[in-house]
Amino acid sequence: MTLRLCQNLRDTVNMAVVTNDIYTKEDSEFLTRNDAMPAERIRGVETGGCPHTAIREDASINLTAIAELQATFEGLELIIIESGGDNLAATFSPELSDLTLYVIDVSAGDKIPRKGGPGITKSDLLIINKTDLAPMLVRRLK
Fold this sequence. Notes:
Elements: H1 2-9, E1 15-21, H2 26-33, E2 42-46, H3 51-55, H4 60-72, E3 78-82, E4 101-105, H5 111-115, H6 118-122, E5 125-129
Parallel strand pairs: 1-2, 1-3, 4-5
């Protein structure tokens, strides 16, 4: 999703991306390899632990990456911060986000919406992906 957002917005929006991984910069390297945007506009953060901590309890490593991008690229309109992982409890620190989008996958069935974690209940926009698969699911969403 981050790749597609970058490819669709990069020519009209002054933007950058921060990705979060535990011990690598795999996600940022993926974006660079796939020409999401110029490599210098992508920052890979190595959290050294659960990426969710870096977006929730101690956002300092992400705030540093954001500050570097803002100092390098004047007038940034959008910085996408990719959290990494699939933790249902993951929410972003208010320090990091003006707007939160949460994506769930219909093929996971009713498990994610039934649990109703913060991503479901507190996001500014909930995106339900792969809706074309819904008729083929054994479980039905109500």
